[in-house]
What we know:
Blueprint: E1 5-8, H1 12-19, E2 23-26, H2 30-37, E3 45-48, E4 58-59, E5 66-67, H3 73-78, H4 80-85, H5 87-94, H6 99-104, H7 107-112, H8 118-121, H9 136-139, H10 160-167, E6 171-176, E7 179-184, H11 185-189
Parallel strand pairs: 1-3, 2-3
Antiparallel strand pairs: 4-5, 6-7
Amino acid sequence: xxxxxxxxxxxxxxxxxxxxxxxxxxxxxxxxxxxxxxxxxxxxxxxxxxxxxxxxxxxxxxxxxxxxxxxxxxxxxxxxxxxxxxxxxxxxxxxxxxxxxxxxxxxxxxxxxxxxxxxxxxxxxxxxxxxxxxxxxxxxxxxxxxxxxxxxxxxxxxxxxxxxxxxxxxxxxxxxxxxxxxxxxxxxxxxx
Length: 192
């Protein structure tokens, strides 16, 4: 793993500014740290977003629930009211990794985690997802990939929560270019 600068954001706007071009956001860090250890990504700055206000709450509502990006997967698994109202989401959360992973992994991180494709994860292969010009899985070993997609990369979405959120017609709010953007789950993964 290469050296990096570690900074803490105090607002979504400061997080975007601190990450700039060569930074990455860090909350639970389960997937990002693996990518860094495998030299897949080498950010110059890690921006701690764990303490951003309001992003660690589950807020029930009459018409919609709000679940912050920094809510841990374990909090979804253990939330009694959420379990009653959205049992499929609670079950999806309960199936994420081990309890230790669920205790530190966040909703935002689970939705944003990168491919488990062995071509993507191999440090000596420059596949399409890493900036290369082809998806090696398309005609190579692809037994766990999504062959029936319209994307040029057939690596599957690996988020357990994405499927449940998609079935619930959830909307995510993504900070892009200094602006909050509302996206459906299919829109979130359209260019993944």
